[in-house]
Amino acid sequence: MSNCPAPFCPGVGRPSSLCCLPSTPPRRRGRSPQPSDRTSAASYCRFEVGTHWDRMLSSTCYVSFTYILYFSLLNRESRGLVKHTGGCHCGAVRFEVWAPHDLHVFHCNCSVCTKKQNNHFIVPASRFKLLQGDSHLTTYTFNTHVAKHLFCKTCGVQSFYKPRSNPDGYGVCPHCLDEGTVRKITMENFNGKEWEVSMDQHETIRNMSIV
Where is each CENP-V/GFA domain found (predicted)? Predict the structure, then answer.
């Protein structure tokens, strides 16, 4: 593998970790050489992962891509995040979420949260991944219809939802997490009966869904 001397790929502005390619594209066995207009590292780097996946797998970009994923994982761990897993009661819905060992959980007293005891902690959407069960989920909305209350069709359990306060993130129910990764839970009461006033007065809740 050659080392790209520039911090960004010439002409396309991509990080050098994605363009550390040889000056001449590797010739595949049984195939003719690449066209001459693709022989420079800059032009050879002009690919989209989605449409040229086979090229990435056969080039040194795959190694760089692996390093990016590896250092992304290290970055999450350096922020004190751990991977929690969880799901509904019947097991049809499963998810994973990156969050601290010590969870900051909201206890809301609005009408729906009181009925279903919706204690939850908030994470950015990028730190939440639904592993299985998308077809098993059904959605309930009311009033502004911004919040999306997601329930398993089989067992009726809500293990996560899209909160009105943070529609760009997820509210995850700590009681639906698997055992072994939560160290401490700190509960904060949120006055959902006066939602607009409470949101205006709260200093941090909107930022909880931002990476």
Answer: 84-196
State the Cα–Cα distance between residues 62 and 170, nearest whole angstrom: 31
Instruction: With beta carbons less than 8 A apart as the criterion, state whether 108 and 190 touch.
Output: yes
Pairing relationship of beta strands 160-162 and 137-140 according to DSSP bridges: unpaired
Rounded-to-integer distance, Cα 39 and Cα 24, Å: 5
Q: Are 95 and 129 in contact (CB under 8 A)?
A: yes
Quote the CA–CA distance of 186 and 77 in Å, as a whole number: 21
pLDDT digits (tens, 9 = 90+) for 80-118: 899 999 999 999 999 999 999 999 999 999 999 999 999
Residue 137: which of 97, 90, 177 has the closest Cα?
90
The whole-angstrom separation of Cα 201 and Cα 198 is 5
- What are 143-183's pLDDT values in tens digits? 999 999 999 999 999 999 999 999 999 999 999 999 999 99
